[in-house]
Amino acid sequence: MLKSPLQIARSAYKPKMPVALNGFVRLEEGEKTQSVADQEEISKLFPNTYGMPIIHMVPGEKPDNIRVNVGVILSGGQAPGGHNVICGLFDGLKKLNPENKLYGFLGGPSGLIEHKYTLLTEDIINEYRNTGGFDIIGSGRTKLEETWQFDKGIEICRELDIKAIVIIGGDDSNTNACVLAEYYKQKNVGIQVIGCPKTIDGDLKNEQIETSFGFDTACKTYSELIGNIQRDANSAKKYWHFIRLMGRSASHIALECALQSQPNICLISEEVEACNYTLNDIVDQIVNVIVARAEAGLNFGTILIPEGLIEFIPAMKKLIQELNDILANNEEFVSLETNDEKRQYVKGMLSPDSRQVYRDLPKGIAMQLTLDRDPHGNVMVSQIETEKLLIEMVAKKLAQLKGEGKYKGKFSALNHFFGYEGRCAIPSNFDADYCYSIGITATHLIAAGKTGYMALVNNLTAPAAEWKAGGVPITMMMNMERRNGKLKPVIQKALVDLKGKPFLYFKAHRAEWADANTSYIYPGPIQYYGPSEVCDLPTQTLLLEKGKIE
After folding, report:
1. Angle at Cα 78 formed by Cα 73 and Cα 82, nearest 5°?
2. Same domain, residue pair 162 and 236
3. Is the separation of the CB atoms in 158 and 165 below 8 Å?
4. CB atoms within 10 A of CB 305
5. What positions carry a catalytic annotation?
6. Least buried of 251, 373, 467, 519, by fewest C-beta within 10 Å?
7. What is the pTM of this model?
8. What CATH number does the domain containing 306 carry?
9. Residues 6 or more apart whose Cβ sits within 8 Å of residue 507
10. Which domain holds residue 262?
11. Which residues fall within 8 angstroms of residue 101, CB to CB, at 6 or more apart?
């Protein structure tokens, strides 16, 4: 494998760990737990794994010789640090017993079902230490939901003498891990299942899981790009940059990037929904800042937009729901020949309120809402270029104000989407350390015979030596939600808390950041070497949540 000088240097980096994980551990069990909601329903669905205690790890004696083979799965989208989870898992298993083997299932959960795997050796592992990406074994989005899939997993585990499966994924993947653990426990097949919290979106967290891995690196990567753009805007004195950021279900990335770079405007989807803002309300808010800065001679700025904004605008959400109902398996609509015919058909079927919203949309976006569908016939919201939609509507509003003599500035806009740029970055020191610790923690949970747990590392604003390791029952995070028309048990997504310290800090400072007299912050690239206060700093979100920033 060809490597850059930075990759070569990073391969020698030794991740920092909690003191307890430097040796062998003893498990201390807390009180029994219950799910965050729908306790009766969840307990009935998971009778064998519900109510287990939270586990804390403390220094202990070396256990008896533990012989165990483990399979690992990378599930869902990439997140920086995934390789280090696998490296920690490998090192932990070999420390328990050099004869232990780690198998990687290829291409995500489908590798378990289709029996595609590779034996991970020390030579392979050493090639991927402290690297970004998931290319060591690949990832995939196959859902583990059917009993025949579980049974296929039993077949390959028996063939390879695998006693435990580690699933590295987000909320949906860990929901699948929970279902798999329950099934294997019910069948008494002797296969443990452990989950690890991954997602750059940051929406897999709760009182126990302080952050999902990859969020730190991705936000630092995006914030560097935003800072570079802001420096260019401040130098050239032109262009409004509309920047859409990943995060369809929650606005954690947009909020964290705003805290790091202090843009002129940052939209938070959860606030939009809570305040019942319309699309026109959002446009007016943007226009007001643009006009105010133009009066000070500043015809430039930056605007951060969460990927899922459209779905959080109540009127747009209602429109999308109506479109999904109208167009699902609608042969009459499909038979129409021209786009104009299709637009007129849709307008005739919508409710009066949704019809008006549809009419107000730029023609291209309106057509995108009706033409682009996912395999279930629903609007592909994540592909809507919200930044272009807002540019077009803002330009139209400013032209109207200019005609009325209320705006004398110049408006030129550029659009950006930052998504894949952050998913496979070389992990920050924080994510490299955190992920390696998660892998080691998962090993100790396996050694103790635990199943249905997610590996837990917290106290993350302290130095790594003071981090606390343990395990949290996955059922503790679950509730019932409607998916594809049916109530299903799923891990509850964590949205931006509008009463939480990170949002309140942002809310208290955003007017200042929009002001002409305030300079931008330029975060710069991720730092891997240097003083700890520069290289090992966690996210602003985490620091605010833990009271480290006032």
Report:
1. 55
2. no
3. no
4. 27
5. 201
6. 519
7. 0.95
8. 3.40.50.460
9. none
10. 216-422+499-545
11. 69, 70, 93, 119, 160
